Amino acid sequence: MPADILIYAVVAAGLVFWLRNILGTRHGDENERSNPFSSRPDTVKNQTAPVAPATGGGPLPEQLNDISAGLERHMSIEGAVAEQGLVGIAQAERGFELSHFMHGAQDAFILIIESFAAADKETLQRLLSASVYGAFEGVIDERVQKDEKANVEIHSIRKTVITDAQIKDKMVFITVRFTADETSIVRDKDDKVIFGDPDRVTETIDVWTFGRPLRSRDPAWLVFETSEGAEDEVNGSTVPETDKK
Predict the structure, then answer these.
(1) What is the CATH classification number for the domain harbouring 78?
(2) Using alpha carbons only, what angle is made at residue 169 by residues 168 and 172, rounded to the nearest 5 degrees?
């Protein structure tokens, strides 16, 4: 074998090895889109039994600082009610980590909006409560009947704010307001745009409530309510508005 061919072969092998390390290998299940909350943080592994939630006055500063650790600059908690609610949840569920929840909520927000636009019912069923899924499914079926197609691109999530947190009827609920820059359109059967503007990035504000059973072994949260923020630039939400049930 000529020396130059041997050199090229060695270089090619090195590139393949490098790409496999950077990109990984395919295993045939890359398209599966699981619940973003399903991967528990490491701190959950060796937990003792949960203690009773606090009652009475506002949260102690050190408690709030503890649960706020790891939040990014665009993530925040709005108001004393939400702060006290989060402290109560953290005390009732010793494995609760606010940073893990907030990142999971952002991932779920993007995944749900994209799956709704793509009419991906299978993914939506894993992320939405039964009543919310029913509302989403109804809109998807209506689009199919009218031969309409939706498309959405989320350019960035600029703010993620917790506005409420509570334990009710052995369920944990956390309400999050998302402020995002996105381009959302719907086209009719003739490919004419009937909603949105493909050349415009708009600020959308969505308020979603996530919930899960108290002290459940399943780390996944589902969406129990979706609504449009009052300050939303576009009249008409990216997803259906639903009530918590």
Answers:
(1) 3.10.450.240
(2) 45
Nearest to 158 by CA among 201, 114, 128: 201
Write out the residue range of the structural domain in which residue 119 sits.
71-245
pTM over 0.85: no
Is 35 contained in some domain?
no
Cα separation, 176 vs 105, whole angstroms: 8
Helix ranges, 149-244 (H): none
Put residue 211 in one of left, alpha, beta given phi > 0 → left and psi -120 to 50 → alpha: beta
Point out which residues pair with 174 in neighbouring strands.
165, 210
Is the residue at 17 inside a domain? no
What's residue 142's pLDDT?
94
For 153, phi then psi, to 5°, come to -130, 120
Tell me the CA distances in angstroms from 224 to 54, 56, 58, 163, 209, one per residue in order: 25, 28, 27, 15, 6
Count the alpha carbons within 13 Å of 38 in the hemisphere toward its beta carbon: 6
pLDDT tens digits, one per residue of 218-233: 889 999 999 987 665 5
Cα–Cα distance between 36 and 109 in angstroms, integer? 10
